[in-house]
Amino acid sequence: MDPAPSMGYGTALLQSFLALVAVCVTAWWVFRVAMKRGPYGLRASGRIQVIDRAALDGQRSVYLVRVGGRVLLLGGAREAVTLLAELTDADVPTSATVTEPESFASVLARLRGRSPGGS
Known about the structure:
By secondary structure, the protein is an alpha+beta fold. The chain has helices at residues 9-37, 104-112, and strands at residues 48-55, 61-67, 70-76, 81-87. Strand 3 and strand 4 form a beta hairpin.
C-alpha cells in the first residue's frame, strides 16, 4: 500500500486562507444580524431614542433619552440607572444650536491673548 501523499506548502496555505475568509464572512454576517436586532437580541421599536451620551469615567455615564414624548436625563452606573431629571423638548438643544467645542490650542491662545497658530 502506498501511504497518502503529503500535502504541499501551497495547498496548506490556500486551505488556511479559505478558512480565514469563511470565518471573516461568518463573523460579518453575525454582526449584521445582531445590529439589526439591537442589544440583547431585542428589536428596536423606535419608541426609545438615545439622544446623547457622556462618559463621566470608566463605569459611569449620563444619558439623554427620548421615550415617547418625554425627554429623560439618566445617570448610569455599573449596576444601576437613576432618573436625574425630566426635561422638556425646549430644554434639549437641536443639532443646529449645538456648536463644536473649541480646540485646546485656541483656548490656550485666547487665554494668552494671541490668535491660534500665531507666535
